Amino acid sequence: MALTPSTMLPLGTALPFAAITAELEAGHARQVSGEPLQPQTLAQGPLLVLFICAHCPFVKHVEPEITRLQADFASRAAHGPAEPQPTLALLAISSNSTATHPQDGPEGLRAQAERQGWRFPYLYDGRQALARAFRAACTPDPFLFAPAADGVSRLVYRGQFDASRPGNDSPLDGRDIRAAIAAVLAGEPVAAEQRPAIGCNIKWHPGEEPEWAR
Questions:
Q1: Rounded to a whole number, what is the largest CA-CA distance in the chain?
Q2: Which of 4, 27, 29, 134 could share a disulfide with 23, CB 3.0–4.6 Å?
Q3: Which tens digits make up the pLDDT trace of 75-99?
Q4: CA-CA distance, 89 to 128, in Å (whole number)?
Q5: Residue 184 buriedness (CB in 10 A; 0-12 / 13-18 / 19+)
Q6: Would you tell me the crossing angle of helices 106-116 and 57-69 to the nearest 10 degrees?
Q7: pTM value surpassing 0.85
Q8: Tens of pLDDT along 156-206?
């Protein structure tokens, strides 16, 4: 296990919508669990993209908080009050190579989602093109996008859930990412000071590591 920080993709980067749709249409990326993904809706509101996997201890550590985020933000439309509220869409992606980590294949991801009660779409990025499009580096690696004034969904937060790590005493409360989500839903700017996520490195196909993973 290589302890790896996120690349901290520049804030304001546009959601790589074309890459997502192209990989899905070509069958290189496929949904393994969750409610049916409607790609055309991804850029219409706040979107939290999570690069995760089934085996990583850093992902296992934050699984309860991911479940709480789903309950607290992504379920408002279904379970909240009658008055419409801004909601958050969640999209999980696993890009680990099954050549080296078969436990992160579709069956392992599906079992993970079922254990946690995750209803959001979970994609298996078989060609690792989505990880490259986001410059993802680790698991977990969160990216929060929101529609900007120009109508484009742009990156407003990337980095850690909170200061908690496996084995330390910091509370797993999603403090950092929740503050960013709350700001987006309130129509307020997200604080620019953001700390990188830390986790296992994405397991690239042997010999196909991107330049930021070398």
A1: 52
A2: 29
A3: 654 444 444 455 899 999 999 999 9
A4: 22
A5: buried
A6: 50
A7: yes
A8: 999 999 999 999 999 999 999 999 999 999 999 999 999 999 999 999 999
